[in-house]
């Protein structure tokens, strides 16, 4: 699952990125509202949640939220702010925020609110994805299950393998380029490793092969890969 984190305090932003990454979220962290809008305008559908600080350079969290809703974008938004007055809460919710977290907050509350936002948005984040006999369940984010003649087999996955398989399963029978898949393995500002997609596909196929379904992932030579349902 991919999160857009918009926080201009360097220490807090770095802490939140580390915290969310440990929970297997893929985090794009930006510190400017205008840059955040570029991300949202181009690829909002790639995100599960946006976490927006209220006070930002360029565009505020309130303005970002208003722009999203004006475009009829249903992306869940969690607003972070030091403002704790009732009128501030009302202003944030009226702008289109789905939830509101007052600084300072504890990690467990942030993670609980993110889980709640995902549950409230089934169209953006279903409880599980199924393609053929293969099931990816968000309740056990490190495991996929293959239903083999009524006997489910568990396939343990690393965080990167989970994200890669998730994206393939969200786009069954579609040919996806290596560059497009690369965005699911790395934060936007990270430096990717050469051939990382091919390497991850090989490892994922090996695990699927142990359960007899390596052929689900096809190579489209010169372009990318396709998950066959």
Please explain how this structure is put together.
The chain has 229 residues and is α/β, with parallel strands linked by helices. The chain is 39% helix and 24% strand. It is built from 8 helices and 12 strands. It has helices at residues 10-22, 33-43, 61-70, 86-94, 107-120, 159-170, 178-182, 196-210, and strands at residues 2-6, 26-30, 49-53, 77-81, 99-102, 128-131, 134-137, 143-148, 151-156, 176-177, 217-220, 224-227. The strands form 3 sheets. Strands 2-1-3-4-5 form a 5-stranded parallel beta sheet, with helices on both faces. It has a 4-stranded antiparallel beta sheet with strand order 6-7-8-9, covered by helices on one side. Strands 10-12-11 form a 3-stranded antiparallel beta sheet. A hairpin with a 2-residue loop joins strand 8 (143-148) and strand 9. Helix 6 crosses helix 8. The relative contact order is 0.11.
| CA-based shape | elongated
Radius of gyration: 19 Å
| Class by SSE composition | alpha/beta
Order of strands in the sheet with the most strands? 2-1-3-4-5
- In terms of quaternary structure, what is this? single chain
Helix segment tally: 8
Distance between the termini: 21 Å
Major sheet size, sense and barrel closure: 5 strands, parallel
The proportion of residues in beta strands is 15-25%
């Amino acid at each position: 699952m991919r999160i857009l984190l918009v926080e201009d305090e360097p220490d807090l932003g770095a802490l939140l990125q580390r915290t969310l990454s440990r929970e297997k979220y893929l985090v794009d962290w930006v510190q400017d509202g205008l840059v955040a809008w570029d991300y949202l305008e181009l690829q909002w559908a790639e995100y599960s949640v946006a976490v927006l600080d209220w006070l930002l350079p360029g565009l505020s969290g309130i303005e970002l939220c208003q722009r999203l809703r004006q475009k009829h974008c249903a992306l869940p938004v969690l607003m972070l702010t030091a403002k704790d007055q009732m009128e501030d809460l009302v202003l944030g919710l009226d702008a289109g925020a789905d939830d509101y977290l007052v600084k300072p907050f504890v990690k467990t509350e942030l993670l609980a609110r993110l889980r709640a936002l995902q549950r409230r948005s089934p169209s953006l984040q279903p409880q599980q994805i199924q393609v053929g006999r293969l099931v990816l369940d968000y309740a056990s984010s490190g495991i996929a299950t293959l239903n083999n003649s009524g006997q489910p087999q568990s396939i343990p996955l690393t965080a990167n393998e989970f994200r890669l398989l998730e994206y393939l399963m969200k786009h069954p029978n579609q040919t996806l380029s290596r560059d497009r898949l690369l965005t699911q393995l790395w934060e936007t500002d990270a430096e990717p490793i050469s051939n990382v997609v091919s390497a991850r596909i090989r490892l994922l196929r090996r695990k699927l092969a142990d359960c007899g379904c390596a052929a689900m992932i096809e190579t489209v030579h010169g372009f990318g890969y396709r998950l066959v349902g």
